[in-house]
Amino acid sequence: MRTLEQTTQEVLDLAASHFQLPAGALAPGDDFFKKLGIDSLQTLEMLSRLENHFGIELPDYEVQGVSDFKTLAERIQSRL
Amino acid sequence: MLDLSKYQSIGEALKDALDRFSNEVCLIEADREREKERLIYRGFKDRAHPLAKALQDGGFSAGARASIIMTNQSKWLISAYSIFFVGGVLVPLDYKLTPEEQWQLLKHSNAAVLITEFPIWRQLSTSAGRAAATSVRTVLLSEAPADVDLAGAQRWENFRGPGEPVFIARKRQDTACIVYSSGTGGTPKGCMMTHENYLEQCVALTSIYPFWPGVRYLSILPTNHAIDFMVGFFGPFTCGATVVHLRTLRPEYVREAFPKYKITYVSLVPLVLKNLQKGLQARFDALPPGKRKVFNALVRINKALTRSRPRLGISRRLLKQVHEAFGGELRAIIVGGAFTEPQTLQFFYDLGIPVANGYGLTEAGTAITVNDLRPFRADTVGKPLPGMEVRIVNPASDGVGEVSVRSKTVMAGYLNEPELTAETIVNGWLLTGDLGRFDGAGHLQLTGRKRNMIVTEEGKNIYPEDIETVFESLAVKEFCVFAANYVWPKRSMTGEKLVLALHLEPGQKYSEELRQEINARNNRLLNYKRIHGVVLLDEDFPRTASLKIKRNVLAERIAKLDSAAAILPL
Fold it and tell me: Tell me: the pLDDT tens digits for B154-194?
């Protein structure tokens, strides 16, 4: 079982690779809309990749209003 | 043609439809590949009446306001119908706003009831804004897990009253909904939409894009949006059609929904339509050269055969694979919320998929003009809908002026804003703030904006005043945010940008430190709200007696500068 810290790190690594940023470019508290400058469609793509990586389902409504990696990781962690 | 003349209210028209189409399917709700719910009209009524009764038993009476903040799902529509049934006023709010913004609008609308989803409430209930919205006495939550603290709310699923609710009649001129078109940061603009507004708009729209039992509308645009409320709820329901909700809007599941549910209509914002175009184009480009040649020839034949009007049967046979990917029964994609580039519209029409391009605004009751496709025109936003009087105010020599509208669909006014209402509706004519002209065929062409605002491709209205708070106490003498197109009008409705006008302190330089500070603050804004450049001015901003900036006078001053040289990139 992953710890929340591990999950958070995996979320950050995966988001960085998805948006072609250097490893370590993202921090848990970053707002991904603002930091990555992405639109809602790109966010959905990122969520699909995270689901595949963690092997979970993350309903859209469950992550509604979530904009930082830390909270996103918490939502993922609760479903692992 | 749909006749709603005998009805006085949305609730009355829906109540009648639920009985008339009792055995037709009204709602399908799917989550990924799973179908979660399929309701017939009778079943919808059975779900709504206990909620209506519980509202009534709780003292919710005629004219009381109830807000819905939900993603698109069956409970949205069931709740809305229940509110109308008991004579309430619906306040549909955008679930994508921040909790603070949502509380601000709940307070402004004086909503007594809030109906929302647990994940949204989790953020709302802990927001500092909650303390100010004292009018909200009842909060109903859907999808709350067992054994969680509801933070003062009740479960939607358990909120049921015994027996039958009493239907409360409303008059056509009564307010049906308060719809916020914008203004969460500055002045909230709550459009008071009457029952008549919706009844008349429904008749006008369905005269061109009709619904009937068996039609399936895929509801993707948020239902709080005027377009989806009309074509994803009121329109299809009054005609016995089916609304399909997807709880997951990932592109792969949206794609699957078209063939699975044999979708007839869908509404999209330009951003999504363009993405769809990109995806299709990539697939066409990947075809082997031989197949590509055949495909291009078929597109050319389709173009020739649909020049004067759409011929869905022919297009579906000619370009079978494309149409099958959309389910084979798609009649039109409705696009709205922002301006769509003609090239995108043409792309779909050439494939035999008509895009119902139009023009409207919440204040006018959704759509003002719409393309009737006879013939298809990608370069205009169509002709006025039946019942709409549209005229161009003070046209210049080329016919361009402000578009104004008079019709029974125009809102009653802005909530608590009589002055703003009086500026916007003059002698019964709604001044849209958009610039355009009519061509010889009676089609409206939009050319720009008179208002200081931008609309993004996602259909979001951004008013510069609303984002100025992020630059408050910036170390300069004064500042003001403008839409570049407003200051330097250009004949375009796309690629609109915001600029920050700065007046520095005497002797102050536009330093690297200041630029970085502006950048840092700008990055606090969502990407679509960010400014794209700075304009430096060396004189005091014109102000009113109450020291408010005279934006129009300042804009005229800035307009004298050469935009290419004046805008310093960040």
Answer: 999 999 999 999 999 999 999 999 999 864 456 789 999 99
Q: What is the number of structural domains in chain A?
A: 1
Q: How far is B33 from chain A (nearest CA, A)?
A: 12
CA distances from B405 to A55, B8, B190, B191, B227 (A): 53, 23, 19, 16, 18
Beta strand segments in B362-428, E: 366-370, 383-384, 389-393, 401-406, 413-414, 425-426
- Does the ipTM exceed 0.95? no
CATH 3.30.300.30 placement within chain B: 454-569
What Cα–Cα distance (Å) separates residue B490 from each residue in B271, B314, B436, B493?
Answer: 21, 40, 12, 8
Mean pLDDT of chain B: 92
Which of B123, B250, B275 is the closest to A65 by Cβ?
B123
**Per-residue pLDDT tens over the stretch B356-382:** 999 999 999 989 999 989 999 999 999
Which residue's structure tokens are 């470019």? A25
* B300 CB neighbour count, 10 Å cutoff: 11
A59 touches chain B (CB under 8 A): yes
Residue intervals of chain B classified under CATH 3.40.50.980 are 10-261
Determine the Cα–Cα distance for residues B179 and B240; give it in Å rounded to an integer. 25
Write down the CATH number for the domain with range B10-261.
3.40.50.980
d(CA B32, CA B29): 10
Query: Which residue in B has a C-alpha nearest to residue A34's C-alpha?
Result: B526
Closest CA to B372 of B212, B233, B207, B231: B207
Q: Which residues, in sequence order, are bridge partners of residue B498?
A: B483, B531
Q: What's the mean pLDDT in A5-22? A: 92
B-chain residues within 8 Å CB-CB of A64?
71, 95-96, 117, 119-120
CATH of domain B454-569: 3.30.300.30
Inter-chain touch B120–A59, beta carbons under 8 Å: no
CA distance B233 to B76: 10
- What order of strands is seen across the sheet that includes strand B366-370? B34-40, B25-31, B242-246, B216-219, B265-268, B332-335, B355-361, B366-370, B383-384
Give the closest residue to B120 by CA, choosing from B73, B52, B160: B73
Select from B97, B91, B131, B95 the least CA-distant residue to B114: B91
Q: Out of B120, B123, B527, whose CB is closest to A33?
A: B527
| Eight-class DSSP state of B157 | G
Range of the domain at A36: 4-77
Give per-residue pLDDT as tens, B36-72: 999 999 999 999 999 999 999 999 999 999 999 999 9
Cβ–Cβ of B247/A44 closer than 8 Å? no
The pLDDT score that the predictor gives to residue B184 is: 47
